[in-house]
Specification:
Blueprint lengths: L11 H14 L8 E3 L6 E5 L2 E11 L11 H17 L4 E11 L5 H17 L3 E9 L4 E9 L16 E5 L4 H10 L6 H8 L7 H7 L4 E4 L4 H12 L2 E4 L8 H10 L3 H7 L6 E5 L10 E7 L3 E4 L2 E2 L12
Parallel strand pairs: 4-5, 9-12
Antiparallel strand pairs: 1-2, 2-3, 3-6, 4-6, 7-10, 7-11, 8-10, 9-11, 12-13
Helix pairs in contact: 2-3, 4-5, 4-8, 4-9
The structure holds adenosine-5'-diphosphate, thiamine diphosphate (TPP) and magnesium ion (3 copies).
InterPro entries: PurM-like_C_sf, PurM-like_N, PurM-like_N_sf, ThiL-like
GO biological process, one term: thiamine diphosphate biosynthetic process
Pathway: Cofactor biosynthesis; thiamine diphosphate biosynthesis; thiamine diphosphate from thiamine phosphate: step 1/1
């Protein structure tokens, strides 16, 4: 039997995802080969003949996807995409994936074939391949991917470099996957544009290195929610971030879906995760690259505000806190 915690204070639910990460990462001395350790979208590790970007994210059936919502191929694409987005968020390009795969014994081999086809399809978009992995029996489908990446000789763009006076800009979609989740959660299967955004994110991979070349001071991918993830840049960089809603585009499709569901589309844009847009800080508004939209500013202080005010309610997804 699993040992029982002495009190409720000691459960992971009480601690939350980020409290737990802090607990397991604090106070650990890293070897000299760790150029950048835990705390960012990816680590950077030195090898005698170079550096490698390394990151891992796991998808669990029922938590990250459902097989009655997504095809196995779409699950494979999503598993690769969420990991390669973290590589891009360092300013690097993905080079290779290692795929840990767990499934129940009755899983069809066709499902595995289709999932792997999706993985390869997404990996090939970045010129990456699957170079290894692991297979285990499990109660549910689990895909845990480690993605490696190449900085192309540039310095990694971390979460801790944002400076007071920088502008915040975004490349990629915001709120679409959250809209798709709301649609699927109510038992609908359309509009297919938002439902597919939930099934398969489309991270703007090349925008990562593009932002690095343009002098981005900090960057991450939006996996949990714009405000939640900007909170990591604010905390790591010891600055405040203010988002201006007049600069945030809320696509007409999201407005339409929200009005059909009685939801707030702005909430999806501000706190919806899983689109894996890239958000970065740039020192000079004139240096914000093509394809990026300015949405806010970096100020002295701490935390994330919207039009100068704290946001009421959860700012994004946190495991065990949902
Ligand atoms: N079990 C763990 N051990 C060490 N580091 C971890 C662990 N889980 C998460 N981290 C690190 O904590 C940071 C935040 O994780 P996470 O929020 O999942 O990042 P992301 O949203 O970019 O995938 C990352 O640097 C990640 O590598
Ligand atoms: C069945 C189902 N329920 C809920 C969600 C919503 N959801 C699951 S995980 C998540 C946030 C991102 O996942 P996480 O594991 O935190 O990725 P990371 O931040 O580590 O990249 C969201 C919005 C979903 N995608 N599918
Ligand atoms: Mg990330
Ligand atoms: Mg993660
Ligand atoms: Mg997360």
């Amino acid at each position: 039997m699993r040992p029982q915690p002495p009190s409720e204070d000691d459960t992971v639910a009480r601690m939350g995802e980020f409290g737990l990460i802090h607990r397991v990462t604090r106070g650990r001395a890293q070897p000299a080969s760790t150029l950048l350790g835990p705390g960012d979208d990816a680590a950077v590790v030195a090898a005698p003949d170079g550096r490698v970007v390394a990151t891992t994210d796991m998808l669990v059936e029922g938590v990250h996807f459902r097989l009655d919502w997504s095809s196995p191929e779409q699950v494979g694409r999503k598993a690769a995409a969420v990991n390669m987005a973290d590589v891009a968020a360092m300013g690097a390009m993905p080079t290779a994936l290692l795929v840990g795969f767990g499934c129940p014994p009755e899983t069809s081999t066709t499902l595995v074939d289709d999932l792997v086809a999706g993985l390869w399809q997404e990996a090939n978009q970045c010129g990456a391949g699957v170079v290894g992995g692991d297979m285990v029996t499990a109660d549910k489908l689990v895909i845990s991917i480690t993605a490696l990446g190449d900085l192309g000789g540039r310095e990694p763009v971390t979460r801790f470099g944002a400076q007071v006076g920088d502008v915040i800009a975004v490349c990629g979609r915001l709120g679409w996957a959250a809209a798709g989740l709301a649609v699927l959660g109510r038992g609908f299967r359309s509009p297919v544009s938002v439902v597919n955004a939930q099934r398969v994110p489309e991270p703007p991979y090349a925008a990562g290195p593009q932002a690095a070349r343009a002098g981005a001071t900090a960057m991450l991918d939006v996996s949990d929610g714009l405000l939640a993830d900007l909170g990591h840049i604010a905390d790591s960089s010891e600055v405040a971030v203010d988002i201006r809603t007049e600069l945030l585009e809320v696509h007409q499709r999201l407005i339409d879906v929200a009005s059909a569901l009685g939801a707030d589309p702005r909430h999806w844009v501000l706190t919806g995760g899983e689109d894996h847009a890239l958000v970065a800080a740039f020192p000079d508004p004139r240096e914000v690259p093509d394809g990026w939209r300015t949405i806010g500013t970096v100020r002295a202080g701490q935390g994330v505000t919207v039009d100068g005010l704290p946001y009421e309610g959860p700012s994004g997804w946190e495991h065990w806190r949902q």
